[in-house]
Design goal:
The structure holds two protein chains of two kinds.
Chain A (H helix, E strand, L loop, with lengths): L5 E3 L4 H10 L6 H14 L20 H12 L4 E4 L7 H14 L6 E5 L4 H12 L3 E3 L5 H4 L2 E5 H4 L4 H7 L1 E7 L11 H8 L1 E8 L8 H11 L7 H8 E3 L2 E2 L2 H9 L2 E2 L13 E8 L3 H20 L6 H13 L1 H14 L5 H15 L4 H13 L3 E5 L2 H13 L4 E4 L5 H13 L3 E5 L13 E4 L6 H9 L10 E8 L3 H12 L9 H9 L1 H15 L3 H20 L6 H6 L1
Chain B lengths: L2 H14 L3 E5 L3 E5 L2 H7 L3 H10 L7 E5 L12 E2 L5 H13 L2 E6 L14 E16 L3 E11 L4 E3 L2 H5 L4 E2 L6 E3 L6 H18 L3 H27 L2 H8 L19 H5 L10 H6 L4 H9 L18 H16 L2 E14 L12 H4 L9
Parallel strand pairs in B: 3-4, 5-11, 6-10
Antiparallel strand pairs in B: 1-2, 2-3, 5-9, 6-7, 6-11, 7-8
Helix pairs in contact in B: 3-11, 7-12
The chains are: A alpha/beta, B alpha/beta.
Chain lengths: 566, 371
């Protein structure tokens, strides 16, 4: 029989003896009974069964989330990498596990380290969805004063905070976006390694981005030595930087510490995406403006006068596709920056005059038509503040209610706008930055008024509505002005890369793998600026699209990511 | 706990403090919190230290609790109470705090042999102990024990609490009764209880502990092998060299500024704890908020925090820390917690049978209320 140490609580003997001696004060019989009932309600009757659900009557987790929580509890013993693909609810899984250990009385002191931008969101979610009294770390005293603290890793690792964190025994440590800890030589990695913890959850959607070492480092943070020393790991499992050998054995080892739910596993039903291009014929005046601006932009780019950098020029080129108001603001600023005797002033003023003469609003008019046809909640995305303001006024003039949404809004204002949109307005007009951090699953119609050139940003836009919890198919309308670069870009993103046909999160992998996010916009700029004719531009864009397609289909087998994915 | 059970619990809790129920409705209830309740569940420690230090009349907190998430009243600031709600946990904690120690007498009026003849009847002193036995490794299970120990004629019974719940009890000794003396001290009774707890534990299936030990051993072995290999492959000297080129996460990041170690602490005058009253404090020009902070937020004294410059752990330290973590996580242990208890002077005799109730019975709460 194992000799298990028993600690018998004796702290109550003295107070009871004293009360016996003094004959009181005694508590009430009813409260005595209630205390016992409370204790019975909270008692953990089984080792293996999930207890937390009876504490979470408002939460209905998906089956894969419950299974994950059970596996972490019963098989991984509270130390795991949660590596679900994007959109499957890793936060819910982490919350379930956290709550489970809390109701079992096994975790009190808990630290959640997340990127600074997510601190408030995590805190709110833990409080609202899980009834966990989490606080966002703001002041130094909070490390010790509060049991569940959410903080940014960059704050936590600095003095004086670091001293507190490394001095505390944490029952549980949770790290979101853990793939940022892939390099073991960074200070963040060293810091996390030094934190004393009993249970530990590492959350990441991309456990392996490039090299096999990354996963090794992540696992070594969780359970040093689980995969042996890095040298033996290399000789046992690594063929090349991205290739593994003994894949079955490796997979088995990884499965002991990592759970990766995938959309393709089934069981999780995502609604489909229906994408439509809405071609828009510009009026003659509008087309003249477009051509005028295009000529101006190209001349300035090739003249390399140094007055305007290529970013400003390409922005102007894109703005004129979005709305004349957006282009107007930039032209105005450019005018202010040129000296009074510059010949450019004349050219700019000429363009401004053209804007003033335009009476039609082809794109906005089409949008109103579309909105009336849809007759439901719609989110319109645009990249430009000026377009946003102008659209809001234009919709208002046509009897359509709308609310604005920007990244610069405070959290409370964002929530307020979301609320207004849900209950009062038909349309939410969001600028790019405003796309993050809110859930709008009650809406299933998205209009891309103009297109970002970075596919990840397109994905983020759609991701606001197309995620777990969306019950209807998602309709995406891409406005495209015929005969402009907008049309070409859309062709590239939509037809060549099949951007919209991808399932949620698939794009993450591709963009990461091809390192597209930094280079795509640059390449596009070059192609558009350097092409001498529209035809040349079309051919170059086509080539680029084919290159992306080709590398996407290129599969190196057996790659480690595949081994880890099984 | 179902919604109606939550409601009943809360109503009984509030009644125990004679709370004033402002409004009661099938879906919700509005209550004016009594002082004790407010302090326990009101979440306003600042307010309370303020009221008490200033000697002010307090404004009672009025809260509305709803019990069905789909039937929340409109236009009211209302809180949904359920088992997992933070406020419910505070109510539980408050009930436990105020329901710890008891002294009750059985008032059995009818069918006493002595009735009418004005002859005194003896009451037997029992120590009732409600304990929670927690079996802990990386997981946990609780066993509730409701022990009763006869302090007059030493013997121990199980399931004492549910027996008590059937008896008419009173906080004062009824007329024509007298109490028999306690031949067993509390300490001696505790010894009996401890022995019984040990016996109960011994009867339990030990599989969980053996499995936890096996997991611990396996993990420790892996760890030992890993650090052995590490030492072989990366001798300390060489490692220092390679580790010194640490990449910074951001180029702008500077090395932490070393704080003067301990010197500042020692140089400081020993702080004499002077408890200022709020009036004194205010008359000396201090801000009220600062005063409240100073008096209600505990900050860790600087000298208690390790002020030494941070150094990366050596592999030895790292291994030690990881071993400690593993033991913390897996090492099987049993904790016996006191829930509440007290002295019960009884005329009736609890059913005999010292044996620990059958396993299936144990899952039945003594209060007979299924949660």
């Amino acid at each position: 029989m194992p000799n298990i140490p028993v600690s018998f609580d004796t702290s109550w003997i003295a107070p009871l003896t004293e009360r016996l001696h003094e004959d009181g004060p005694w508590d009430k019989w009813e409260l005595f009974k209630l205390a016992l009932e409370a204790e019975e309600a909270m008692a953990v009757r089984e080792f293996d069964q999930l207890q937390c659900l009876k504490y979470l009557p408002l939460l209905s987790p998906f089956p894969h989330q419950l299974q994950t929580a059970e596996r972490v509890l019963n098989e991984m013993r509270g130390r795991a990498i949660l590596a679900d693909e994007v959109g499957l609810g890793k936060t819910i899984e982490a919350g379930l596990i956290m709550k489970e250990y809390m109701v079992r009385g096994l975790a009190k002191k808990i630290l959640v380290l997340v990127p600074a931008s997510l601190v408030i969101q995590w805190t709110k979610e833990l409080q609202q969805k899980f009834g966990i009294p989490a606080v966002a770390q703001k002041k130094e005293y909070m490390w010790r004063q509060h049991e569940v603290v959410v903080a940014s890793i960059d704050t936590a690792k600095r003095d004086p905070h670091r001293r507190h964190v490394l001095d505390i025994d944490y029952d549980m440590l949770i790290i979101d976006e853990a793939h940022k800890l892939k390099n073991k030589r960074t200070r963040n990695y060293q810091f996390v390694k030094e934190i004393r913890k009993k249970y530990c959850l590492l959350l990441t959607a991309t456990p392996i981005q490039n090299e096999m070492d990354e996963l090794y480092n992540l696992i070594n943070l969780l359970k040093p030595g689980h995969l042996g020393h890095s040298t033996s790991f290399a000789s046992n499992y690594v063929e090349g930087k991205r290739q593994s050998k003994n894949s079955d054995k490796l997979r088995e080892e990884i499965e002991k510490v990592m759970i990766r739910n995938k959309r393709s596993d089934g069981g999780i039903q995502f609604t489909s995406r229906r994408v439509q291009s809405i071609p828009i014929e510009l009026s003659q005046e509008e087309m003249e403006l477009y051509e005028g601006v295009t000529r101006f932009v190209r001349d300035q780019y090739q003249a390399e006068s140094g007055l305007f950098n290529s970013l400003a020029l390409i922005t102007l080129q894109r703005e004129v596709c979005s709305s004349k108001e957006a282009a107007f603001m930039t032209l105005y600023n450019m005018h202010q920056r040129t000296s009074e005797d510059s010949p450019l002033r004349g050219q700019i003023l000429q363009l401004v005059e053209m804007i003033k003469r335009i009476e039609t609003h082809s794109k906005a008019a089409k949008t109103v038509e579309l909105l009336q046809e849809i007759n439901d909640k719609v989110i319109i995305f645009t990249e430009y503040r000026a377009t946003q303001n102008y659209l809001q006024k234009y919709l208002h003039d046509h009897g359509i209610t709308s609310v604005p949404f920007r990244g610069g809004f405070k959290r409370s204002k964002k929530d307020w706008m979301t609320d207004l949109f849900q209950n009062r307005a038909q349309v939410l007009i969001a600028t790019e930055a405003g796309g993050e951090g809110i859930n709008l699953q009650f809406c299933n119609q998205v209009i891309n008024y103009d297109m970002p050139w970075n596919p990840m940003r397109v994905e983020q836009r759609i991701g606001r509505v197309h995620r777990l919890g969306q019950k209807r198919d998602v309709h995406i309308y891409n406005l495209s002005t015929v005969g402009t670069i907008e049309e070409h870009i859309l062709k590239l993103l939509y037809e060549k890369i099949d951007l919209f046909e991808m399932v949620i999160g698939e794009l993450d992998d591709i963009v990461e793998r091809l390192n597209l996010s930094s280079s795509l916009e640059e390449n596009l700029t070059q192609i558009i600026m350097d092409s001498k004719s529209t035809r040349e531009m079309a051919i170059k864009l086509d080539n680029m699209g084919q290159a992306i397609r080709a590398s996407r289909q290129l599969h190196v087998s057996p790659s480690l990511s595949e081994a880890a994915e099984q | 706990m179902q919604a109606n059970q939550v409601r009943q619990f809360v109503e009984r809790y509030l009644a125990a403090f004679s709370a004033h129920i402002v409004e009661t409705h099938p879906d919700y209830l509005t209550v004016k919190l009594p002082v004790e309740v407010d302090k326990d569940i009101g979440n306003r420690p600042f307010y309370w230290s303020w009221v008490e230090k200033m000697n002010l009349a307090y404004q009672p907190l009025v809260l509305t609790f709803a019990f069905h998430p789909d039937r929340m009243p409109d236009g009211l600031r209302v809180e949904h109470l359920h088992l997992g709600a933070m406020r419910m946990q505070q109510i539980f904690a408050s009930a436990k705090k105020h329901g710890r120690f008891l002294c009750m007498y059985e008032k059995n009026t009818a069918s006493l042999p002595g009735t009418g003849k004005r002859r005194s009847t003896p009451l037997v002193p029992w120590l009732g102990l409600n304990l929670k036995v927690s079996l802990i490794c990386d997981k946990r299970r609780d066993i509730m024990l409701y022990l009763g120990i006869n302090l007059h004629q030493p013997r121990l019974v199980h399931d004492f609490a549910s027996f008590l719940f059937q008896l008419p009890l009173s906080p004062t000794i009824p007329d024509y009764f007298y109490t028999l003396d306690r031949k067993l001290s509390v300490e001696e009774a505790v010894e009996l209880a401890k022995q019984e707890v040990d016996a109960v534990i011994a009867q339990e299936d030990q599989q969980w502990a053996m499995e936890a030990r096996a997991r611990l051993t396996e993990e420790l072995d892996i760890l030992a092998a890993y650090y052995e290999e590490l030492a072989r492959r990366e001798p300390p000297a060489e490692q220092d060299k390679s580790e010194s080129v640490e990449a910074a996460d951001t180029p702008a990041e500077k090395a932490p500024i070393p704080l003067p170690v301990r010197a500042t602490v020692q140089a400081r005058e020993p702080v004499v704890e002077v408890k200022q009253s709020l009036d004194e404090y205010r008359s000396s020009g201090g801000r009220i908020l600062d005063f409240l902070r100073a008096n209600s937020i505990q900050e860790t004294p600087r000298e208690e925090i390790n002020q030494e410059e941070w150094k990366k752990s050596t592999p030895e330290e790292e291994k030690q820390r990881r071993m400690d973590e593993l033991r913390w996580q897996y090492e099987p242990r049993i904790e016996v917690h006191f829930i509440n208890g007290g002295l019960f002077y009884l005329h009736s005799t609890p059913p005999a049978g010292k044996a620990h109730p059958a396993k299936t019975m144990r899952h039945l709460p003594a209060s007979r209320r299924m949660m």
